[in-house]
Amino acid sequence: MNLYLISQSVNSGYDTYDSAVVVATNELEASMIHPNRWNEFTYIDGKGWYDNDDLMDNDYDYPDYSWANHPEEVTVEYLGQAHYKLDTTKVVCASFNAG
User: Fold this and answer.
1) Domain range holding 47?
2) Which end of the chain is more exposed for a tag (fewer CB within 10 A), N or C?
3) What is the rounded distance in angstroms from the CA atom of residue 25 to the CA atom of residue 99?
């Protein structure tokens, strides 16, 4: 597993994430991680990020705007190899701009 810095500049201002350090196997996997580690978000191809609670209700009316709209808008920078105990994909820390 590796450590990556992920960042975005598409959605900025209050209640947005600008960056995070994540554990992932590769850059593509890192770009698919949403920085919010408390609520699970899933990316729906071509539509955006959705809270898993909304997906269970088939509610696609309100995509999440606290992060990049699409993984292609996420900048991924390799930081180094993760400690062997960090063996699952996860958010280590995130930068949130509260409002």
Assistant:
1) 2-97
2) C
3) 33
